[in-house]
Amino acid sequence: MKLASVLNPALRAGLAGLALLWSACAPAAGWNLQTLTQALAQYRGGRADFTETKTLAMLDKPIESSGELRFAAPDFLQMRTLKPKPQTLTLMGNQVTLEMGGRSQQFDLRDHPDIATLIDGIRATLNGDLSTLQKHYTLTLEGTQAQWTLTLVPRDDKTREHVRDIRIGGRAGMVRTVTVEQSDGDRSVMHITPVASP
């Protein structure tokens, strides 16, 4: 099975959502890409619940799913889908593990440069590395701190074959939605609710 087919756009959406999930305390003034990434760099890990709606051209009605997202700096990412079917996608370093239906598969990102470019951009965001993020994406931040949208357009041609753009919406330092527009016209919208640590 090819990694590109396993890491479907919906899972990519979840990982992209992780990239801007954790900025809970953004500065009050000077709202821009620099202050956003500075806020991200201060957070070293966390967890959130998600619900996602996917609209696919081949289906008559949208698919809904839900679960949780986890991050631990510098390079641990996990998307655990609970409904409608359990599935866990875990990234640790360059290793990708997909658990589904009682089976586990592993891949090395270095063997899949198009996917690696996407993941490297996500990691750069999680770590507040604006220069690396700009290397992989064209970034546009619109709105105010009270209501903003960050659009990420992949620079890599192969990545753009799968994902046209990712739009993250939020208020202050909290991300509320992640919308992924696929190059084939399919679309996913994720709603994110951060979970406080016990």
UniProtKB/TrEMBL annotation:
Gene3D superfamilies: Lipoprotein localisation LolA/LolB/LppX (2.50.20.10). The keyword Transit peptide does not apply. It comes from the Bacteria. Keywords: Lipoprotein, Signal. Residues 1-28 form the signal peptide. SUPFAM superfamilies: Prokaryotic lipoproteins and lipoprotein localization factors. Pfam families: LolA_3 (PF19574). The keyword Signal applies. Coiled coil: none annotated. This is Putative Lipoprotein localization factors LolAB. It comes from Thiomonas delicata (Thiomonas cuprina).
